[in-house]
Amino acid sequence: MQNDSTAANPLLDFSAMPRFEDIKPEHVEPAIRSLIDENRALIERLTAEPGTPTWDGFVSPMDEAGERLGRAWGVVGHLHSVFDVPEWREAYNAMLPEISRFYAEVGQNLALFEKYKALHDSPEFATLSPVRQRILGHGLRDFRLSGAELPDDQKPRFQEIQEEQSQLAAKFSENLLDATNAHAEWVSDEAGLAGIPDDVRQAARAAAEAEGKPGWKFTLQMPSYLPVLQYADDRELRARMYRAYATRASELGKPELDNGPLIGRILALRDEEARMLGYRNFAEVSLVPKMADTPEQVLGFLRDLAAKAKPFAEKDLEELKAFARAELGLDTLEPWDVAYASEKLRQARYAYSDQEVKQYFPEPKVLDGLFGVIRALYRVDILPDEAPTWDPDVRFFRIEKDGADGPELVGHFYLDLHARSTKRGGAWMDSARSRHRNTWGSDTPVAYLVCNFPGPVGGKPATFTHDDVLTLFHECGHGLHHLLTQVDELAVSGIHGVEWDAVELPSQFMENFCWEWDVLQGMTAHVDTGAPLPRALYDKMIAAKNFQSGMQTVRQLEFSMFDLRLHGEVDASSGPVPIERVMALLDEVRREVAVMIPPAWHRFPHSFSHIFAGGYAAGYYSYKWAEVLSADAFEAFEEAGAGKGSLLDPETGERFWREILAVGGSRPALDSFKAFRGREPRVDALLRHSGMVAQA
Ligand SMILES: [Zn+2]
């Protein structure tokens, strides 16, 4: 299919790994444009064809063309993230609107929807593999949730609802940001700064100076607000900051920044959308593509966890109150004292420095440890390999397993560990290529693993904090999900098609190994002495990990329950929901699960961006949900390793690979979990790992 002009463009070469050394910003526009044209022409041709479509004649060519575009644009997006120089930023942004327009157009293409439906209803459907049937089902579901099946006279209204929702979400964020920036606390006397760390003071002084004023300016931005609440000895300052923060974007501040009416309107629109699609409420719509089946099931899950966590939260709070009374002279613990007293208690009890821990985690030892865990669990080898990269610091590896005729290639990954000025922050795993086998050929998967850790200095290897090590294992868990897949269908291989509330299972699962004494002994070596992590330091790390886990858990449960019930129980069928109704529901939830009840003037919903301006509506529960799955899965390894001195049990590892990692999105995540664990998920392992275990 390649003509002369495309043959010369390295972005259009899909024969092997991306040619990072040859690909230049000027290749982007012609390559992406030609791939979009190719896709558009194909869709036009296929939808114009008369007769019933077939898998090989319709889905396969669609997949093939889609994969080429996805892979080429994936390279551009990747370079935009890891090599963000002006020319690449420009090349990326120049094509971004066009690519978004193309994907939106495909999602709303009714002729395409009709073709998928015709194949789904044809005699061929019964002859397709269950995986292919599932892929078609997902495709139709996504079209339906975008309103494709509504009667023609309802479609304009559905479109209006979508547009108004995105406008309201944007306004919600803007109000919150403006309200956050609208307030400042000024301190004129140095004595008023007592307790506040130096770097925070300096930033506050610089902020005042920037306005040509004396004194110190503290703001409601996290890096200023949080340290004041944690460290400022001046209780009045903490109280004022707390109140300002808690009432942001509400009717208690500037009327034009009040998010209350927006909340009411967003809820009404979501309710209307749900009813148009034939559901009882928005919580049901949100759960359609998720692992959880019904709002009742999720609520039951949250209540079960709450019942078990609440006694520990109460204990945490009692302990904090007693400490505040005895050590800090605070007879009543007010909400603006909680962070302050907690920080003092944490220091008194579990003080150790990240700096101390870091000396035990030099990079080569950590990588050896990580690869060793993977080798022991899955009996695969990780070997250095060669491929063009975007930076000399990037490494490339191949994964092999033993086959009947010698080593067999499983997949490849790039490892880009160190921070650079051209790399966006954070850590992530992304797909460079997905496993597939089809009429047009087959490919093994390739992943990008990207972190922002410190690099080596002064001839010594880089050393990582324990948090860094957790991040590395987490991203590697996503990577293994992508790389160890055995699914041949692109749409559900690796992490593709995995339910949103189950995607974090393999990643959080891997984190658990970083808290195991035996595993840590094999992956730590003091950077000067070579000694492994001492037991006393390890014990402190574990204790600090579980500090106030009861209180933290019930807080997350409060948010989750409020979100779910708001979208499932509050009647919004007769127009915007009054904010009093929203606040009353939050009070009800707090009476059930919270241990610390905020003052009546607290306006939490007005800043709950996750659900009003992010993608988490009726989905906030996913954080805890996935944590339960990963902890419960890890418990299988603890059980298998009991009495053997190591939980790196290859038989359990083989089963985890086969039932969870290998199958990707090819079957429901709950089926995969049950196939691995032999039963439904339970919350007990998470409670135990968080130190919430009833004392006998
Ligand atoms: Zn993750």
UniProtKB/TrEMBL annotation:
Catalytic reaction annotation: Hydrolysis of oligopeptides, with broad specificity. Gly or Ala commonly occur as P1 or P1' residues, but more distant residues are also important, as is shown by the fact that Z-Gly-Pro-Gly-|-Gly-Pro-Ala is cleaved, but not Z-(Gly)(5)
EC number(s) from the headed UniProt entry: 3.4.24.70
Cofactor note: Binds 1 zinc ion.
Species per Swiss-Prot/TrEMBL record: Thauera mechernichensis
Protein name: oligopeptidase A
SUPFAM superfamilies in the record: Metalloproteases ('zincins'), catalytic domain
Listed InterPro entries: M3A_DCP, MetalloPept_cat_dom_sf, Neurolysin/TOP_dom2, OpdA_N, Pept_M3A_M3B, Pept_M3A_M3B_dom
Domain Peptidase M3A/M3B catalytic: 228-691
Keyword terms of this UniProt record: Hydrolase, Metal-binding, Metalloprotease, Protease, Zinc
Family statement drawn from the similarity comment of this UniProt entry: Belongs to the peptidase M3 family.
Oligopeptidase A N-terminal domain mapped to chain residues: 34-155
Organism taxonomic ancestry: Bacteria, Pseudomonadati, Pseudomonadota, Betaproteobacteria, Rhodocyclales
Enzyme class: hydrolase
Cofactors, names only: Zn(2+)
